Amino acid sequence: MAGESMATETIFDRDLTARWYAQQHRKTDPAIAAIYYLPGNAPDREIRLIEVNTMIAELNDELEAVDFGVDRGTSNEHLLCILDVTPTQWKKISDSKLPLPAGWSLPSAIPL
Amino acid sequence: MNRFQQSWWEQAASDHELLNLLRREGMGICHQLHYLQMATEKLSRAYLWRNAKPIKKSHAGFGLFMRLLTQVSETQQQEKLAQIFAFGRFEDFQNWVRSALPLVYEIERLAPSLANEGPNPEYPWPTAVPTVSPIKYGFPVWKQLTESATGRQLMSIIARAVHRFPQYA
Asked: Is A22 part of the contact surface with chain B (CB cutoff 8 Å)?
């Protein structure tokens, strides 16, 4: 996770790294119902994940991702952005009734 | 907000801003936790200064602050707090705080004075034989804060608590 290295001196592979994060997060948080990876429109070194979680509170506010800088100054440097949503919010997102953060693209979503 | 609260809140907001910078730059976990602990402690002090009277150091914890927010009795204030923290009802906010309290107390216990000669984000430990440095240590609380949705939601609520402090001080 942020501040930790997935691999020390490897070439950054965004798709592989996204899968690694998904695995790690599932191990830590049993309330994760689904994880979607959204590479569309994202800068090359930015990983965008939507995590659908059954245990979080639904906040009445616009959706906002949390971003973490990882491995700065190394070949693996990237930004990890995670958007946590409830199953109800995910349904609304899927039905285009709840907007994603600016620049995020749902059609490219890959379930992990 | 009185002038004592203003002073503590300004410092808390500055610590929190630095935490955000450190997070986005991917700096050492210990440094991010250090600023998180300091920001929450100072925010708690800002809140506890609402009676404009000095507070005991031992009474200024983040856990107490969060619990006090859930113990507001006036309906109008309850609705205001729920709105500030983006919850539909005050009861939802209370339930959320209850579920987040274990993590809240873990953040509070990061302060070296409460760490019992163990892991803390500032100084190597144990004091007599300092063999572990914070920069090399993988703090379990960090894993909870970053790899679980509850942890990330707590970070988000802390950000709200800092930014919107003047509305509920």
From this structure: no
Helix axes B140-147, B149-163, angle to 10 degrees: 80
> Per the structure block, which two tokens stand in for B71?
């113990």
Whether residues B23 and A24 touch (CB distance < 8 A) is answered with no
| Confidence at residue B117, expressed as pLDDT on a 0 to 100 scale | 86
Complex prediction ipTM: 0.76
What's the CA gap between A71 and B3, in Å, rounded?
Answer: 41
**Cβ–Cβ contact A30 with B under 8 A:** no
Asked if pLDDT for residue A5 goes beyond 80, the answer is no
Query: Is residue B87 within 8 Å of A60, Cβ to Cβ?
Result: yes
Q: Summarize the confidence of residues B32-46 as an average pLDDT.
A: 96
Q: Chain A residue closest to B27 (CA)?
A: A3
Q: State the pTM of this model.
A: 0.87
Disruptive mutation site among B33, B148, B155 for chain A (greatest number of A CBs within 10 Å) = B148
pLDDT tens-digit map of A7-39: 555 689 999 999 999 999 999 898 999 999 999
Q: What is the pLDDT of residues B119-142, one digit of tens each?
A: 999 999 998 999 999 999 999 999
In the DSSP assignment, the letter for residue A100 is P
> If phi over 0 gives left and psi between -120 and 50 gives alpha, with beta otherwise, what is residue A94?
alpha
Helix pair angle (B90-108, B29-48), 10° resolution? 120
Q: What amino acid occupies position A24? A: Q
**Residue A65 structure tokens:** 């991702």
* Structure tokens given for B123: 């100084």
Please tell me if residue B27 touches chain A, with a CB cutoff of 8 Å.
Answer: yes
CB contact under 8 A, A60 and B87: yes
Among residues 42-81 of chain A, which lie with CB inside 8 Å of chain B? 51, 53, 55-61, 64, 66-72, 77, 79
